[in-house]
Specification:
This protein has about 400 residues and is an alpha/beta fold. The chain has ten helices and nine strands. Strand 8 and strand 9 form a beta hairpin. Helix 1 packs across helix 2 and helix 9 crosses helix 10. The termini are far apart.
Length: about 400
């Protein structure tokens, strides 16, 4: 006769392994079977562990709503499955609204964009633009219109009583513009006297010398043993060259200037005072200018070899096709159809500066500020400045004083 084991000390039967599809949610039944059997065979019971034995994710302190929900869910699916469900189905502490600390939220490598944005907004940035062309083409007015601020040389004290200089001078005016929490130090470099003399031979040399001096200044700061954390950037990022609206062709001075400086600065040719021509004359003049630039091997920004990918090439091809931009500048407002617009008033009506049917100022501003401002800075640093730097470092094996001034190296 076998020994009779008392019922109170009878060992519990082993719980059979649960099939992978048993107790799992399905489209027809999103809630798996619950209850004392935990999805197992009938009659097989497992005593629930005390709440203190349930693993709780880091960040849950106290009996929060999310924590109690996770515990009850764990009891219905088994302790291990419940813990996995807490992490896998998003029942995390970030959704907790009562008691305890919460996680910071999504963390990913794309957050570096936000970090860069914050640093840039704190530090601000520099943008230096040079305007070249003979007097009377509206250079100062156009710059003021571009940035919707009085940033031109005239705004800094220049008057009509000033005499035309006998040689080309370089005058720069700096302003700090703030918009949307972003600060930009804008420097406008003007070249009074260019093209205004009877003899304009080599009148581009002072401009070329100024551009190279800014490269030299940056290079000396860069090679210092103890250099500044942020080197002041006075390099010319963009040169707007103003073409007279003759309706015929480019002057020889225009060709010589752009040919000699196109490899040291980003040149953007613009046709000034486009309202002096009819739309047909304007389009014909643009095509003639573009053909002359191509025949003389003059490269203007954006250059084809600087296109980084097919998207850049597609966007820049449209810009190159529209250049040179025929523009009109004005800082005066007039009432047109019940709204205030920037424009030039004539006997025949108002030429609206920002109306694409009247001129191409809007395309120039969009190209120069909204889409390519950062690229202008990068091309200046990576192409033009690097070309100058490599040339200087290869001259007799190092840097030398410029214009008789001792180097601070």
């Amino acid at each position: 006769m076998s020994d009779i084991v008392p019922p109170e000390v009878r060992p519990k039967p082993a719980v059979p392994a649960k099939p992978p599809n048993v107790g799992a949610p399905s489209p027809s039944n999103p809630f798996p079977p619950q209850g004392p059997n935990l999805g197992g065979p009938a009659g097989v019971g497992v005593s629930a562990p005390p709440p203190s034995a349930i693993p709780v994710p880091i960040g849950i302190h106290g009996a929060s709503h999310a924590g109690s929900h996770a515990v009850s869910h764990a009891l219905s699916h088994g302790v291990s499955h419940g813990a996995a469900h807490i992490g896998g189905h998003g029942h995390s502490t970030s959704n907790s609204t009562s008691g305890g600390s919460t996680l910071l939220g999504y963390i990913g490598i794309d957050t570096i964009i936000e970090q860069m944005r914050k640093k840039t907004m704190k530090a601000g940035f520099d943008f230096n633009i040079m305007v070249v062309g003979h007097s009377g083409l509206g250079k100062s007015t156009l710059v003021n219109t571009l940035f919707k601020s009085q940033v031109s040389r005239r705004s800094a004290g220049w008057s009509r009583d000033d005499k035309i200089p006998k040689t080309v001078e370089i005058k720069s005016v700096s302003h700090v513009i703030e918009e949307g929490g972003v600060k930009m130090k804008l420097t406008v470099v003007d070249t009074p006297g260019f093209g205004d003399l009877i003899n304009n031979n080599n009148c581009w040399e002072p401009i070329s010398k100024y551009i190279n001096e800014q490269y030299e200044k940056f290079l000396k700061e860069e090679v210092n043993i103890t250099r500044k954390k942020r080197i002041p950037d006075t390099r010319v990022h963009c040169c707007l060259y103003f073409i007279s609206p003759t309706g015929h062709s480019l002057r020889q001075l225009d060709i010589e200037f752009m040919k000699r400086l196109s490899h040291s600065v980003n040149i953007i040719p613009v046709i000034a005072k486009a309202d002096t021509m009819t739309p047909e004359e304007r389009q014909e003049f643009k095509q003639r200018v573009k053909k002359e630039l191509e025949m003389n091997g003059i490269e203007f920004y954006p250059q084809k070899e600087f296109d980084e990918d097919m998207e850049d090439k597609s966007d820049n091809d449209k810009i190159r096709e529209a250049m040179p931009f025929a523009v009109v500048g004005s800082d005066k407002e007039y009432q047109v159809n019940g709204k205030r617009v920037l424009g030039r008033k004539t006997a025949w009506g108002v030429v609206e500066v920002e109306n694409t049917n009247h001129c191409e100022f809007a395309q120039l501003r969009d190209f120069l500020i909204r889409s390519h401002l950062q690229d202008l800075k990068e091309v200046t640093h990576n192409i033009h400045y690097e070309t100058y730097r490599a040339k200087r470092l290869h001259e007799n094996g190092g840097l030398h004083p410029v214009d008789g001034q001792e180097s601070n190296l």
